[in-house]
Design goal:
0% strand, single chain, mainly alpha, 497 residues
């Protein structure tokens, strides 16, 4: 296989895998919105505050207890899968699963014991601590998520999320309706994780065969690679979920629910691009050459996808929040601030995964620290004074400091990402959105105008080329349809390009 054909193949893997990866996030977000809307209608907005506090605590602890296993495992699964080494693939997966199961089990028992004996966190009850301990144990699900991403079988992630969230909708809403309030809502989350683990085990056995013996060498490889990302990941996860817990502690349950919803929507938008760049780590790890070209192309496509919607929501945030109910419109400014972090997060993640695939762990550490230390410090300074707004500002500022360090890192390793095209991809929708907002245009007119301008403007400005479109069409298996429609599409294509 030639270098060019290998590059085309890997682009197709990332696009197809990224499509399913993003679709899995769409499933989680859409079904999550339905879930939150249903339970808040039944029990009021305060239920979101309690439940999000429990979820945030468990996610925070799970992030600390992961020791970076998600990134380390993805790297070595991608390396083994890319080289066709099935034996190594099995050893890396099962050995990591054994160790992760033990770690999450020990941490869960410790948290459960603290809760039962009354050693409670501020604002938490015994029941909240116990439920959080169960979610911590089920955090071993991270191994299966890393498995799907590492071998680029992200369609399984979509299927698992759909089944798990369907069960959450059914069980959680019934329990809340029966009067179990936030306990019932949290049990819905627990059911989702439990189902994901069961399906993950069945699929792993089906694909890899029976569990193998324990390999200390494989565990060492995964955790050494993971520790490079673990310190910044811990700071990120502490900052991310400490932000929610800070709002809960300083302002109360209602504002926590509003912040959590705004944060979820912002992540939904960010993941449009992040779903592609996230897959760079396993794919690049399995490549010998052409890594920088592939990373540059994926970064550009990701920013092209995320920029228009990000800029729209910066100026028209109340649009989507209004669908959830009037009580959530108060979070419009929060959403505007949070969604600003989307483009720098996507760009930073692309550069981070490139240097990670090269094994430059110190660079990975530096990027993570530059992004997340400012966030954590600013949470402590701004949240007590400005509540959720302070938390959102801190999160977004950290995204830009991380991007600044990532840009320096990319220059030092000789990675040129086509800065001119990236700037055009951001400025074009930002100019249209801000101009229409100043003129007082309605949101539906602004959205239509942004879409029309970028569809015409990106090709005209050279941001998107014919080659880009051709590769996207091929990756999504649309070649036959496009060939049939080409006589009709040719005048449009000739005009755009």
């Amino acid at each position: 296989m030639t270098r060019d054909s290998r590059g085309v193949e890997e682009k197709s893997r990332i696009i197809r895998g990224g499509f399913w990866f993003y679709l899995s996030n769409v499933v989680v977000s859409v079904m999550g919105f339905i879930y939150w809307m249903a339970i808040s209608i039944i029990a009021g907005p305060s239920i979101l505050g309690y439940t999000s506090a429990i979820v945030s605590l468990s996610f925070l602890i799970n992030g600390v207890a992961s020791f970076g296993v998600n990134y380390g495992l993805q790297r070595f699964l991608g390396l083994s899968y890319g080289s066709g080494d099935v034996v190594a693939l099995k050893k890396y997966f099962w050995s990591t699963f054994y160790v992760s199961l033990a770690i999450y089990g020990i941490v869960s028992i410790a948290l459960f014991t603290l809760g039962v004996y009354g050693y409670l966190l501020p604002g938490f009850t015994r029941e909240m601590m116990v439920l959080a301990s169960i979610m911590v144990f089920l955090g071993v699900n991270i191994v299966f998520q890393s498995f799907y991403v590492g071998i680029v079988k992200t369609h399984m992630l979509t299927l698992v999320n759909f089944i798990g969230n369907s069960i959450r909708l059914f069980l959680g809403i019934i329990l809340v309706y029966l009067g179990f309030s936030w306990i019932g809502a949290t049990l819905g989350y627990i059911a989702t994780l439990l189902v994901s683990i069961v399906i993950g085990l069945v699929y792993a056995v089906y694909l890899l065969g029976r569990p193998t013996g324990f390999s200390l060498t494989c565990v060492k490889d995964v955790y050494v690679a993971g520790l490079a990302s673990w310190i910044p990941f811990v700071i990120m996860i502490v900052g991310q979920w400490f932000g929610v817990l800070s709002v809960y502690g300083y302002t109360g349950v209602v504002e926590t629910g509003v912040y959590y919803i705004s944060f979820t929507i912002a992540n939904f938008v960010i993941f449009i691009g992040a779903s592609l760049v996230q897959l760079l780590l396993p794919v690049l790890s399995g490549m010998v050459d052409g890594r920088k070209r592939l990373a540059s192309w994926v970064m550009k496509i990701s920013i092209v996808l995320v920029s228009p919607l990000s800029m729209f929501l910066v100026f028209y945030p109340e649009t989507i929040l209004g669908f959830l109910g009037e009580k959530y419109i108060g979070g419009a400014s929060l959403l505007s601030i949070l969604v600003l972090s989307g483009i720098p997060v996507v760009a930073t993640l692309a550069i981070n995964n490139l240097v990670y695939a090269y094994g430059m762990y110190s660079r990975v550490l530096g990027i993570g620290l530059a992004q997340n230390i400012p966030r954590l410090l600013l949470y402590l300074l701004l949240t007590p004074v400005y509540g959720g707004y302070g938390t959102a500002i801190a999160y977004t500022i950290g995204s830009f400091t991380g991007l600044a360090f990532a840009a320096i890192t990319s220059y030092s390793v000789g990675f040129r990402a086509g800065l001119q095209s990236l700037v055009k991809a951001v400025i074009l929708p930002a100019t249209i959105a801000s101009g229409l907002y100043i003129l007082g245009a309605s949101w539906y007119f602004a959205l239509g105008a942004i879409i029309a301008v970028v569809v015409i403007g990106y090709p005209k400005l050279g941001v998107v080329t014919k080659s880009d479109v051709r590769e996207l069409v091929k990756a999504l298996y649309l070649e036959d349809y496009v060939k049939k429609m080409y006589p009709l599409l040719k005048p449009i294509i000739d005009y755009l390009f």
